[in-house]
Amino acid sequence: MRYLIKLAYDGTNFIGWQKQKTGRSIQVILEKALAIFTERETPVVAAGRTDAGVHALGQYAHFDYEGRMQPWQILLAFKRWLPEDIRVLEIYQVGQDLSARYQAYERCYKYILTKDRNPFNRHWAGYIPHLKIRLQPMLEAASHLLGQHDFSSFGRLNPEVTNHICEIKELSVTEDEQDFVFVVRADRFLHNMVRRIVGTLCNISHFDLPPQEIDRLLEEANPRQNMVFTAPACGLYLIDVKYPRELLDGRECYKYCDLLKR
């Protein structure tokens, strides 16, 4: 049987999602926990591979399990065996045709950019002190990123990825006394794309560039751009992933918050 889980994690002390030769990854910690209570090696496949220092409020992943444990028991077992910086929030029993990675049709990220670094936000918000950052220029430039484009200029160079076309469906920027908050929703993302978008919008504000600078960057489709830089990882959160309704319709969802009430 296949199970889909929704999880949250603090990425501060991880090298990212994907297992590597050395370092602590979310994937390795999840698979070690599964091995303890299922007594077998079980691969876990995520909706997206977040980088070192990147957080998640709504990451999704799937794994296969054929034992006797019920979904709610698996949820409780994760609670017992996972460290405090990872939590499985929900679990569904799904069909074998659901892939957390390949069936996801939309992902949403939030980026928090603080105006003042302090001991309480240093791991959970980006900070770019050398730039003059203002809301209105970023809003005007952000509108030029909406829709379907070749986002080569906004993704880190990766020869293995040949398709650079993405559709941004939402890109909002808001401001309060402490932070700027960016929300980006798209059908897919290139590596570092959200962080490079944030950094570029900050640069456009700082250098008083017209919003049409975005059009130029898109047209050049070149990841080596002086105006594009990558904002710090610690401000980025994966907050949601969407799957076709027919893959989850009728599937019972067991939630961590409900188990606490028992």
Q: Tell me the CATH architecture of the largest domain.
A: 2-Layer Sandwich
Q: How widely separated are the two ends?
A: 26 Å
CATH class of the largest domain: Alpha Beta
Major β-sheet, in short?
A: 10 strands, mixed
Enter the CATH topology name of the largest domain: Alpha-Beta Plaits
Rg of Cα set: 19 Å
Q: Give helix % range.
A: 10-25%
Uncertain segments are none
Instruction: Compute the number of helices.
Output: 7
In terms of DSSP E residues, the strand content is 25-35%
Please explain how this structure is put together:
This protein is of the alpha+beta class and 262 residues long. The protein folds into two domains: 2-102 and 244-252, Alpha-Beta Plaits, CATH 3.30.70; 128-231, Pseudouridine synthase I, catalytic domain, C-terminal subdomain (Alpha-Beta Plaits, 2-Layer Sandwich), CATH 3.30.70.660. The protein has helices at residues 26-38, 71-81, 135-142, 193-206, 213-220, 245-248, 256-259; strands at 2-9, 45-46, 55-64, 86-94, 106-114, 147-150, 165-175, 179-186, 236-242, 253-255. Strand 7 and strand 8 (179-186) form a beta hairpin. The longest helix is centred in the C-terminal third of the chain and has 14 residues, at 193-206. It is globular, with a radius of gyration of 19 Å. The chain starts with a strand and ends with a helix.
